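Milestone 3.1: sequence recovery, worked example.
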C-alpha cells in the first residue's frame, strides 16, 4: 500500500520548486495509492488534482480544497460518489472506469453549482436504460455528460419521466448490489483457494496470471499486489546480475599485462625513441574526477567511469617522470612516459643534407668521434646477400 505522504507530494511538486503550500496543480497518477489523505492539509491552493490509475476506494478528505476546479479519479475502485459538496469551485469531475453502481449518489453533487462536466463512462451505472435522462435532470447545472453536450431540449424531455426513471434506477441499483455482494464472496474464495495451493511462490504467481479474473475492485487490488511482488523479484534478479558482473582479467598466468579497452575509447599511441605517448580520446564533458591514471614500469592503465583501459609496454618506463595532461578544448588525455634505458639509445640528428648517427656517452662503449656515412657501406650492390 502506497500512502499519500508529504514526501510524495513534495516529490511531485518539482514544477513548483518543491513548494507545497502554493501548489495549484499536482499529478499523482499510477502510484497505487489506496486512500486520499493529507492532500487537503498541505495543498490548500490546489486547482487541479490528477489521481487517475490508482487503487482509491472512497472519495474523502477533500473538503478543504475550496479552489479545486478539476478532479480526475478515473480508473480507480470507487463505488459511490460522495464527500464533494464542500469543493465549491469544482467545475469538472472525471470518474471514468470506476465501479459506481449507485447512480443516485450523483445527487450529492447538486450543491456543486459550478460543476459543468461529468464523466462516468465505463461504470456499471451507465448500463441502466435511463441513465443519461436521470443524471441531466438530477444535476441541472451540467453542460457536458460523458463528452456529449446536454441540450435544453434533451433536459426538458427527461424531466417528464424523472420520477419514474428514479424508481427504476433504485430497483436496478438493488439488483446490482445483490450481484455485487455475490461477486465479492466469489472472488474472495478464488483468492483464498489460490493461496492455499501447495506450490512455491513463483508457481503461484504463474498460476494467478493464467487464471481468468473478474473485473472488480478486489481483483484489481490483487493484481496490483502481484505486480508489486513480480517487480520486487525482478529487482532482486537485476541486483544479483549486477553482483555477478564481468570482472576483466588484467594479467596472464606469467604476469604479462593484457591490452584492454573496456570504455571503447579511440586513442593514438606513439613509440618514440626516448618515450611513449598515449593520446586517449576521453569524452569532452566528462568530469576529470571520474578518470584515474596508473603508470607502471611495463604497462599503463586508465580507469574511465570504472571501466579499464590498459596497454602493455615493450620497454620499461620511468614512472617518476611520467606526466598526464588533459586538453581543455577536446577533453583528450595525453600521457607521456619516458623510457628507462636511454643511455644506449641512438639519436638521429639532421645535419644539413646528411644524416649523422651519434651515440650518447657510455662507460662501456665510449663515444663516437665523428659521423658515420652509411651510404658507402656497400659499394657494389652485388655484394648484398639475397633475401632468405
Amino acid at each position: 500500500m502506497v500512502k499519500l505522504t508529504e514526501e510524495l507530494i513534495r516529490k511531485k511538486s518539482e514544477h513548483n520548486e518543491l513548494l507545497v503550500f502554493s501548489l495549484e496543480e499536482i499529478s499523482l497518477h499510477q502510484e497505487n495509492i489506496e486512500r486520499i489523505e493529507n492532500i487537503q492539509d498541505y495543498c490548500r491552493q490546489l486547482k487541479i488534482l490528477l489521481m487517475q490509475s490508482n487503487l482509491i476506494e472512497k472519495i474523502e478528505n477533500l473538503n478543504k480544497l475550496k479552489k479545486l476546479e478539476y478532479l480526475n479519479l478515473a480508473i480507480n475502485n470507487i463505488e459511490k460518489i460522495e464527500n464533494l459538496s464542500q469543493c465549491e469551485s469544482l467545475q469538472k469531475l472525471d470518474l471514468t472506469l470506476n465501479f459506481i453502481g449507485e447512480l443516485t449518489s450523483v445527487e450529492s453533487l447538486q450543491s456543486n453549482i459550478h460543476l459543468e462536466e461529468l464523466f462516468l463512462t465505463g461504470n456499471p451505472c451507465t448500463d441502466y436504460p435511463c441513465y443519461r435522462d436521470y443524471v441531466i435532470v438530477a444535476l441541472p447545472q451540467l453542460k457536458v455528460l460523458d463528452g456529449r453536450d446536454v441540450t435544453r431540449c434533451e433536459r426538458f424531455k427527461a424531466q417528464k419521466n424523472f420520477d419514474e426513471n428514479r424508481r427504476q434506477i433504485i430497483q436496478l441499483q438493488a439488483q446490482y448490489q445483490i450481484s455485487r455482494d455475490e461477486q465479492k464472496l466469489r472472488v474472495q474464495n478464488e483468492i483464498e483457494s489460490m493461496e492455499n495451493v501447495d506450490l512455491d511462490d513463483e508457481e503461484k504467481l504463474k498460476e494467478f496470471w493464467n487464471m481468468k479474473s473478474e473485473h472488480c475492485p478486489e481483483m484489481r487490488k490483487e493484481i496490483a499486489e502481484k505486480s508489486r511482488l513480480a517487480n520486487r523479484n525482478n529487482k532482486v534478479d537485476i541486483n544479483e546480475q549486477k553482483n555477478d558482473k564481468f570482472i576483466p582479467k588484467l594479467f596472464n598466468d606469467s604476469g604479462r599485462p593484457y591490452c584492454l579497452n573496456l570504455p571503447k575509447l579511440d586513442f593514438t599511441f606513439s613509440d618514440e625513441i626516448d618515450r611513449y605517448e598515449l593520446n586517449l580520446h576521453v569524452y569532452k564533458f566528462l568530469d576529470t574526477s571520474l578518470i584515474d591514471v596508473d603508470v607502471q614500469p611495463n604497462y599503463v592503465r586508465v580507469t574511465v567511469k570504472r571501466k579499464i583501459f590498459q596497454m602493455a609496454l615493450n620497454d620499461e618506463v620511468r614512472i617518476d617522470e611520467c606526466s598526464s595532461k588533459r586538453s581543455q578544448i577536446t577533453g583528450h588525455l595525453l600521457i607521456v612516459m619516458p623510457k628507462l634505458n636511454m643511455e644506449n639509445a641512438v639519436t638521429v640528428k639532421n645535419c644539413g643534407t646528411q644524416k649523422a648517427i651519434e651515440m650518447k656517452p657510455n662507460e662501456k662503449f665510449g663515444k663516437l668521434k665523428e659521423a658515420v656515412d652509411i651510404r658507402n657501406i656497400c659499394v657494389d650492390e652485388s655484394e648484398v646477400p639475397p633475401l632468405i
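The CA atoms of residues 110 and 139 lie 6 Å apart. The two ends are 83 Å apart (CA to CA).
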